[in-house]
From TrEMBL:
It holds the Pfam family ABC_tran. It comes from Geodermatophilus obscurus. Residues 22-262 form the ABC transporter domain. Coiled coil: none annotated. InterPro entries: AAA+_ATPase, ABC_transporter-like_ATP-bd, P-loop_NTPase. One of its GO terms (molecular function) is ATP hydrolysis activity. It comes from the Bacteria. Residues 1-20 are annotated as: Disordered. This is Iron complex transport system ATP-binding protein. The keyword S-adenosyl-L-methionine does not apply. Keywords: ATP-binding, Nucleotide-binding. The keyword Nucleotide-binding applies.
Length: 277
């Protein structure tokens, strides 16, 4: 099997510009009496890199589940890679979207060989079974493991890796299918300072690559926003506080409103930092 030949989702003929990879209109997600998301409107273009910021329980993971075709909205329209959710086979859509999350990481058996965790992504399975891989797959997996600094641990079992190595293995796996959209749910969670800085630098390099997919990064921490990210969506209690180009929407006032406490935001050396006012 070759899993590297995936269309790049370019502009449709006659269209004024590139088609959004994510488009949400009037989206609500309701569970019982709980409104997880309300009235979400959001559009992500192929060359954009978005950070989604918000406190615990704001609805960030729910938003990423929708964008990853792992959930349907209760109301409203979600279009992913030009397809409308509800009118498309999600099993055809999901390989075109790379997703990393704590929930997916928990499905990886600690005894799985790390190289197989990356390689098996094309079959949407965790770990190697009876699948057959061709030389292109093996070459791509090796290149991605090199790019994410985990080639040296390819033969180790996943359970023996450090948290930083695990996070980078998951991103390499998410990129294995050459996705048109990469969704990263709190990739910096649980990392020490060195691990975080290494991850931010690698994500900044990916953000700067013109051939890289559209990217959406969920985090609680402005310090984790990689240089090169272009847009921000700020969420609070399931609703959008602000959304748009990073330089326009990310400021102390919007951040204070999002997190519900008075904050100042600074950007020394191209990196953001926030503290209580
Ligand atoms: N099935 C469900 N039924 C009721 N409430 C739910 C359900 N799933 C999630 N929630 C609630 O919806 C809210 C949003 O959850 P979500 O995981 O999207 O938030 P989050 O912003 O990712 O939070 P965190 O930063 O803590 O990971 C939370 O209050 C959560 O408890």
């Amino acid at each position: 099997m070759s899993i590297s030949a995936v269309s790049s989702g370019g502009p449709s003929p006659g269209a004024a510009g590139p088609e959004p990879v994510v488009e949400m209109r009037g989206v609500d997600v309701v569970r019982g009496t709980a409104h997880l998301l309300r009235g979400i409107g959001w559009s992500v273009l192929p060359d954009q890199r978005w950070v989604v910021l918000g406190p615990n329980g704001a609805g960030k993971t729910t938003l990423l589940q929708l964008a990853g075709a792992h959930m349907h909205p209760t109301r409203g329209e979600v279009r992913l890679l030009g397809e409308t959710m509800g009118a498309v086979d999600v099993f055809e859509l999901r390989p075109r979207i790379g997703l990393t999350s704590a929930a997916l990481a928990q499905r990886i058996q600690p005894g799985e060989r790390t190289g197989d965790v990356v390689l098996s992504a094309g079959y949407a399975v965790v770990g190697r079974g009876r699948e057959r891989y061709d030389i292109d797959d093996l070459t791509r997996a090796a290149a991605l493991m090199h790019q994410w600094g985990v080639q040296a641990v390819a033969h180790r079992s996943f359970g023996t890796l450090s948290e930083g190595e695990r996070k980078r293995v998951q991103i390499a796996r998410a990129l294995m299918t050459d996705p048109e959209l990469l969704l990263l749910d709190e990739p910096g969670a649980g990392l020490d300072l060195g691990g975080r800085e290494d991850l931010v630098a690698r994500l900044a390099a990916l953000a700067g690559s013109p051939s890289a997919p559209a990217q959406v990064l969920v985090t609680h921490h402005v310090e984790e926003i990689p240089p090169g990210y272009t847009h921000a969506l700020l969420l609070r209690e399931g609703a959008v506080v602000a959304s748009g180009p990073l330089a326009q929407v990310l400021n102390g006032e919007a951040l204070s409103q999002t997190f519900g406490l008075p904050l100042t935001l600074e950007r020394p050396g191209g990196r953001y930092t926030a503290r209580r006012r």
